[in-house]
Design a protein that fits this description.
By secondary structure, the chain is an alpha/beta fold. 31% of the residues lie in helices and 24% in strands. It has one domain: Nucleotidyltransferase, domain 5 (2-Layer Sandwich), CATH 3.30.420.60. It contains five helices and seven strands. The strands form two sheets. A five-stranded mixed sheet has the order 3-2-1-6-7. A two-stranded antiparallel ribbon has the order 4-5.
């Protein structure tokens, strides 16, 4: 469902969700499809220090039953886990908004990796409300730049 963002039309009242694993901007189009006017509705941010700062234990070891050899177990990437948790909470927020009629149409703009995490989290009603997905990281851009990139 990825879209060429240069030809996109964002309907009036649509939510434009611009996110990555640490920050999400929920914008609302207060203009119309021909002349979008994106305004900030909500901002969600998560403090997520580097993985090395979150977990300091060495990876675990496993004893093999057939020999005295030991193997290491891959350590948990706490930074990655925190990003996934943030995106799960964002998907739940969007699902509640669609269920409550707060958002009837949603455009998701996210880095490809974040889109890959979000897609399986879409409920059926949310998936039906998604008008377009843009696989581009724009979360650090000011709102007027995001608008300019998405407007035809």
């Amino acid at each position: 469902m990825s879209t060429n963002y240069n030809k996109m039309k964002i309907e009036a009242g649509a939510w434009v969700v611009v996110c990555d694993g640490r920050k999400a901007l929920i914008l609302v189009n207060q203009g119309d499809a021909a002349f979008p006017n994106l305004r900030t509705h909500e901002v969600h941010e998560q403090e997520n220090p580097p993985a090395a700062a979150q977990g300091t234990d060495a990876p675990g070891r496993v004893h093999q039953s057939a020999s005295p050899a030991r193997s290491s177990v891959e350590g948990t990437d706490w930074h990655d886990e925190a990003e996934h948790d943030f995106l799960r909470k964002l998907a739940a927020r969007l699902d509640r908004a669609v269920a409550a009629g707060e958002a009837k149409s949603v455009v998701v703009v996210a880095a490809p990796r974040a889109l890959g995490v979000l897609r399986p989290l879409y409920s059926r009603p949310l998936a039906e409300a998604i008008a377009a997905e843009v696989d581009r990281d724009m979360v650090k851009l000011p709102v007027y730049e995001i608008e300019k990139h998405l407007a035809a």
